[in-house]
Amino acid sequence: MSLNRPLSPHLSIHKKVLTATFSIFHRFTGICLSLGSVLLAIWIILIALGPTYYSKFQALSSLIVFKVFLFLWTLTIFYHLYNGIRYLFWSYGKMMELNMVYKSGYVVIILSILSTILTWISI
Description:
α1 packs antiparallel against α2 and α3 packs antiparallel against α4. This protein is mostly helical. The chain has one domain (24-122): Up-down Bundle (3 helical TM bundles of succinate and fumarate reductases). It is extended, with a radius of gyration of 20 Å. It has helices spanning 18-49, 51-61, 64-91, 98-122. The chain has four helices and no strands.
């Protein structure tokens, strides 16, 4: 059965839309938060197993790579939180004008970065 329909154009010819990028990052941060939660559970298990396992974890957590991972995980927490609040407003039909959608997207990014930096400064 052959249909003479045109094929869809490839994604590369479409214009990149900022709202789509924010939506993709919202999903990506959700996945990252899930993975980070698994690592958090492993950390709690290591604490429960005793001082030998916890000291191994402490040695691992002193590496700069681990601290960068934690910093990025903190950033994903705040981005997902603020973007989720933005989506909640959209669910009620608020802030749906195009200029407000873009402004709120930038506000989400700025608040995420500021909250992450303030959290790490306070630690």
